[in-house]
Amino acid sequence: MQYYTVRAFTILLLFILSACGNSSKKEKGTSREKTKDTVKIDSAAIKKAQKEKEEEKRFVLTEDNAIPFLFEYQKEHKEHKVRIRTSKGSFVIDLYEKTPYHRANFIYLTKKEYFNGTYFHRVVKDFIIQGGNTDMVSTAKRRDSIGFYLLPPDTRKGYTHSRGTVSMPSSDDVANPHKLASPYEFFIVTAKNGAHHLDGKYTAFGKVVSGMDVVDKINNVPTGDDEWPLTNVVIKSVEIIE
């Protein structure tokens, strides 16, 4: 009787151990399947992020898409104050909310780091300093990577070209009757009494609110006959501060 009892107990024990082993195998198998699924999900997310990044790199602004793009961009990006660091010192510009396309354009280019390393390439004493260009091939390539487009004037918001006003230049010729402006350049009025003969012709879209002494310092650098400073005045960086 004892023999049969021991035998039955042994069989029962083996059965329990066997059941535990199968359960363990099932759990392990399930764990592997979950791991595989997780890897697939993570891989898909990475590929999606890479694709979006590549599409962002390929995106360029054109005459057809620039205004619709900036219209949407200005809704989401409300930044309006930037600090410009130059080889002559720093100053701060406040961009006008009522000129949304020009404000959005300047913020967009700032975030693209376009202005970093460009020059104040035109200086007219007691009138203006103009920045955003260089004589380097790298600057032209940077423009190409962002896109070719022009901005229409926005001169009916009541802003005038008083001292410290930031405005956008445009060519004044028969080929540009609508005064479309280059989005990559800007000028700052340095004249004591302003430059009001420019009102209604060029878009004033901001004002220097701090560091006007630095702007005056740039305005006093020696230039050649082409109004280009004899020693380049470099825009080291433009950063958003508000």
TrEMBL record:
One Pfam family matching this protein: Pro_isomerase
**SUPFAM superfamilies in the record, alphabetically?**
Cyclophilin-like
Q: Sorted alphabetically, which InterPro entries does this protein's record hold?
A: Cyclophilin-like_dom_sf, Cyclophilin-type_PPIase_CS, Cyclophilin-type_PPIase_dom, Cyclophilin_A-like
Entry's PROSITE patterns? Answer: CSA_PPIASE_1, CSA_PPIASE_2, PROKAR_LIPOPROTEIN
Instruction: Give the highest taxon in the source lineage.
Output: Bacteria
**Which parts of the sequence belong to the PPIase cyclophilin-type domain?**
89-240
A GO molecular-function descriptor:
isomerase activity
EC assignment: 5.2.1.8
What is this enzyme's catalytic activity, as reactions?
[protein]-peptidylproline (omega=180) = [protein]-peptidylproline (omega=0)
Which segment of the chain is annotated as a signal peptide?
1-19
| Keywords assigned | Isomerase, Rotamase, Signal
The record describes the protein's role as: PPIases accelerate the folding of proteins. It catalyzes the cis-trans isomerization of proline imidic peptide bonds in oligopeptides.
Family to which the UniProt record says this protein belongs:
Belongs to the cyclophilin-type PPIase family.
**Name of this protein:** Peptidyl-prolyl cis-trans isomerase
Q: Which organism is it from?
A: Galbibacter pacificus
